[in-house]
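Now read this:
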Amino acid sequence: MDRSLPVLIVDDTERDCDNQRHLIERCGFQNISCTTNATSAYMMMQRQYFGLVLAEMNIGPRSGTHLLQTVRDDPNLYQLCFILMSAERRPDAIIEAHRLRVDAFLLKPFDFAYLRGKIVSLSKLNSSFRPHANQRLAALRQRLAGRSREIED
C-alpha cells in the first residue's frame, strides 16, 4: 500500500475531521487534507490529486452522497477511491451509496482496525488504489503547471 498517497477527509466538524485524521495517520498516511463541506472538497479535488477520499454521508449543504455522484460523473475524478461513512444504518442509504459505486461504506463509530482493514482490502484490489492513477496524477500536474503559467503571465 502506497502510504504517500494524499488523502482527503470530508466530515461535519473540525473535531470529526481531527478524529478521522488521527485514524488515517495511524494507518501510515501523512499527506492528509480535511474540509467540512462537500463544495470545498470538490474544489480541492479539482486542484490536487487525492488517492483516497473519506467522506461523511450527511454533511451540508451538499451531502457526501451528492459529492460521490459528482466525482463519479467527472471524467477527471471518476476513478478516485471513495469511502463513505455514516452513523445511519438505513439499508436504503447504504444501497444508494453502492449504486453510486462507492468503494467502501463504513458505519460509525469505527475504530482503527476496521478502517485499516477496509483500506488494506481496497489497496489489494487496486494497485495504488486505482489503475492509471500515476497517469492521472501526471496529467493533473501538467494542467496545474499550465494554469500557474497563465496566472503568472
Notes: The beta strands are 7-10, 32-35, 52-56, 81-86, 104-107. The first strand starts at residue 7 and ends at 10.
